[in-house]
Amino acid sequence: MAEATASLGPSASGGLYLRTRRWLTHAAIFGTLILAWEIGTRTELLDPLFYPAPSKIITSFWRIYVTQGNIWKHLYVSIGLVLAGFAAGSILGITLGSLVGLNPLVRRFIKPYVIVLEATPRIAVAPLLIAALGFGAQSKIAIIMLVCFFAPFINTLSGVVNVNEEKLELFKSLGASKMQILKKLVLPEAVPVIMAGERLALTAALSGVLVAEFIQRDQGIGALILTYTRNLNMASAFACIFTLTIIGFAIFKGMELMDRYIAFWSHEDGMTRVSQNRNVRWAKQGWAR
Amino acid sequence: MQRHAVRSKASPDQNAPVVSGSGVGKTFASGTVIALEDAGFSVPKGRFNSLVGPSGCGKSTLLRLISGLIEPTSGSLQVHGEEVTKPRQDVAMMFQRATLLEWRTAIENVLLPSEIGGRVTSEDRTRAMELLKLVGLGDFAFSFPAQLSGGMQQRVALARLLQTGADVLLLDEPFGALDEFTRERLNVELLRIVTEIEATTIFVTHNIAEAIFLADEVYVMTPRPGRIAKIIDVPFDRPRELSIQTSPEFNHLVEEARDILGAH
Ligand SMILES: Nc1ncnc2c1ncn2[C@@H]1O[C@H](COP(=O)(O)OP(=O)(O)OP(=O)(O)O)[C@@H](O)[C@H]1O
Ligand SMILES: [Mg+2]
């Protein structure tokens, strides 16, 4: 099973004093790093051509977002592609994963293919896709789909295959039909794993769109980074990269939020919320207490 | 089979077995593991019988055979006079672990048997709520399993078992994972309930004293190959006080069971 979150040590917890102190320490370290970078480039200890000063990067941010405002159209294009490719890849992955997982015959023979698929860097196929589909949004979406289909596929597969034996016996002893077992047991039980796969897929989609735009260079954030780098406008290239950092972070947080809603039972607050909702619904229906 | 033919405690009608088996055997894995051999038994209506024996002696196998989850390799099994071939509506099983669905609230878990049986009616909901109250969880109907303690989860599972409306209850070490206090309380509770609904019950446990305290008859099982070595009749009247466990008669029965198990 794939898991998207990395643990880098203790998270925000503890008393107010401790938390404030931790934040102050963080701010101090961050400030020092930026300052060192700034001084480093000003004294030309770092080559200012390749490592533009933070102040320059901030100026570039202002320019590409406000005065020139040229990044927006590239952002729209890239994000649109990410969403389209992600949606297509997820649907394909989840569908294939369920079909394979639910079909014992296919399941028995699928393993070698999954291994081959896993071992091959999917991105290597990108040029072939362009050759087949031609330049344009179509082949870009196909590339993104390709890089983000695997995690949902493999996670759905493992979620569907690894049904809890005891629960399965429970359903059988209750005389459940195959369809009931699928709807009431297999799919709900696979949801948290599938969601973990989706998180990985969306991150992969962001890398996918960049590769696609590096190859096709016509528009999008990837193409913009290429253009700036070629013109040795490193400050603007960095501004684009940090934009991607922010998008990546937003994706991460967004998926976490979605997980809290969809796989609510693996989160304390999710359970509390849904528990209240169900209670209210029961009361509204006027059912027995 | 024959040794049971002589039992006759109540009227002949009541004595007709609800669950019975003769020469029941189950061999797993291409004939290498004999999980159960030549099991013969019959349980009349409303009886509470327990199965006791060491790990691997085929207790779960016997329950799963009766529930129709697996088929015997030899012999025959009947419930209400009909040969068992697949899971039946009038037989319900409770597992060692609570096996609740984590994405359903307690009440929704209890309603699962009704949902699988067809549309959920308002009577089903009323009954589910009553059962939750019966097991002392009226205030936790909308809690999720992860918000409940192990003992509470097990009680939800018990309510779900009763929601099936089955009159044959198979319990596989239902409270085995719980502390002794909780287990004792739930056992007493269980006895009260099954007596009230006149269910025929087979109860698996590792604990000899528990097996004797609860049951009308104790099937003592021994491993390799799994078999019913002895059927011990428990003569105590019901309802039983916890204090009978210190009586000489009780201890005599415990000794008897222990001797059989020790001899293997
Ligand atoms: N599905 C199976 N495939 C192969 N062997 C099995 C299977 N189920 C049970 N067995 C074997 O059958 C024997 C009896 O198992 P069973 O689960 O009935 O024991 P048990 O009395 O319930 O033990 P415990 O007290 O540990 O639950 C064991 O040796 C076990 O390994
Ligand atoms: Mg067992």
Structure description:
- The complex is a heterodimer of chains A (289) and B (264).
- Chain A has helices at 16-42, 54-67, 71-102, 104-119, 126-133, 137-148, 150-161, 165-173, 178-216, 221-230, 234-262, 268-284.
- By secondary structure, chain A is mainly alpha-helical.
- In chain A, helix 3 (71-102) packs across helix 6, helix 5 (126-133) packs antiparallel against helix 6 and helix 7 runs antiparallel to helix 9.
- Chain A is globular, with a radius of gyration of 24 Å.
- Chain B is α/β, with parallel strands linked by helices and 264 residues long.
- In chain B, 36% of the residues lie in helices and 25% in strands.
- Classes of the chains: A mainly alpha (289), B alpha/beta (264).
- The interface between A and B is medium-sized, with 30 and 37 residues.
Provide a compact summary of the structure.
The complex is a heterodimer of chains A (289) and B (264). By secondary structure, chain A is mainly α.
Helix coverage percent of residues of chain A? over 70%
Strand proportion of chain A, as a percent range, falls in under 5%
> Structural class from helices and strands of chain A?
mainly alpha
Element string of chain B (H = helix, E = strand): HHEEEHEEEHHHHEHEHEEH
CATH homology group of chain A:
MetI-like
Helix content of chain B: 25-40%
| Structural class estimated from helices and strands of chain B | alpha/beta
Summarize the biggest pleated sheet of chain A: none
Q: What is the mean predicted local confidence, pLDDT of chain B?
A: 90
